Protein: SMI1/KNR4 family protein
Amino acid sequence: MNTDQADPDELAALRAAFDVDDGGQSALGWEKVRAFEAEHGIVLPEPYRTFVAEMTDGSYSGPPESGLLSLAELPDDWGDDGQDRDLSRPFPLTESWLWEDDPRPSEEIDPILDQVFDHGSIVLGTDGCAMNWHLIVTGPHRGHIWLITDVGAGPFGAEFGFTTAEPGFAGWVRHWAANKPWYDIA
Structure:
């Protein structure tokens, strides 16, 4: 998984999976991508960066179930307007965490939860019921996809033991395109 350079094969797979053939009209464009990155103090991981700049910025077709959100969008059920989100601060997790079963007191858990939801990730979309897919943009898991729910969070990809798919945005999309219904548990 190369998060710094777009792989032509991955870009071709993304084009095919989303059937993007509108001459780039639904894409954000490089100027707006760079402006978003400058505003948030990040560089988006590849191939997602090229995907939103050249192919499409959001899609009604999945993944996830409700479609891919545009770069700056949050799900309708997000709650507040996302003012506390800081994409430049590292995403705090490197392994799955089921906070619903965590025995620590809420005074210890709540600050970490705030970071899980608001630091270092963009929301790709939702599968409903507070199940949101995030692309990690800063921190050790940069470029990985995480499913963050109301009870816990876990990384997507075979190396993490929760699916048979490759990690990263391209692996996530390829898995969806080949396996509808698409989310498997290994």
In short: The beta strands are 121-126, 132-136, 145-148, 153-155. The chain has one domain: 8-178. The chain has five helices and four strands.
